[in-house]
Give the backbone structure.
Amino acid sequence: MTDSTITSATLEVRDLGKTYTGRGEPVEAIQRLDFTIAAGELVCIVGPSGAGKTTLLRCLAGLLAPSRGEVVLADKVISGPPPGLAVVLQEYGRSLFPWLTVAQNVELPLKEKKVPAARRKELVREALEAVSLPDDGDKYPWQLSGGMQQRVAIARAVAYEPAVLLMDEPFAAVDAQTRFELEDLVRSLWERLKVTVVFVTHDIDEAIYLGERVLVLSGRPTIILEDVKVDLGDHRSQLETRSHPEFSRLRTHVYELVQAAKKGARSVAEAGLSH
Ligand code: ADP
């Protein structure tokens, strides 16, 4: 995989609103969101449970139509799953096909993308190497641990050479040690591939460790409470970064924002905090 094969893209969310209607009362999951994620940026989204994080990600992925506003990827309004976008979800167990080998799972979207067979083989090999599973291509997903399965899901997304990678709580179901390893994997892949990454998590430490920015959502109806810049440099390390005073400051600040969001705060001032 060469850097030139990936062209990252700017993602713009304009005046986005989503109200679920159906039986019963309508639920205004997202009131109004406006933000831009520059090409090649890694942005994390945190917020209280029920704040609409998954709803937002599904709108970004073109899987859910917004009730208002639009999502624009590389200057095109998204009206369905756009080409050049890959998604990694929490439930790795359900996202891999158990009757296909690891290599076949990674290859599948490439077939759909009509990538020629020789190139497919190359991309699968490179992606499995990138996630440190070079010798596991012939195994079946159920022969691997949870963390390894999630690596396969990441390999599948990376092999696709997406311009934008969306991740929805991808490490919520793995143990803490594996989680740290997978976080570092995401950072290193992002650094190498310069892909635009949107990472949803409920884990504040994870958001700060990974992100260049953290968007903190309010409670419903959802707006952005604060767009927090993370000034921790490009090189992150689990030990050093997490013990940095700026990391502690950011963690306290974002924690307080999320607590205030849970209590219904609609602005940083209302939360009684300064930026
Ligand atoms: P989060 O990911 O932040 O926990 P969600 O996006 O899953 O939040 O949900 C936001 C709100 O929208 C919640 O109140 C949830 O109950 C509601 N919601 C989610 N999906 C649907 C749906 N299909 N129909 C009705 N309400 C929904």
Observations:
- The chain has nine helices and ten strands.
- Residues 1-6 have pLDDT under 50 and may be disordered.
- The first helix runs from residue 53 to 60.
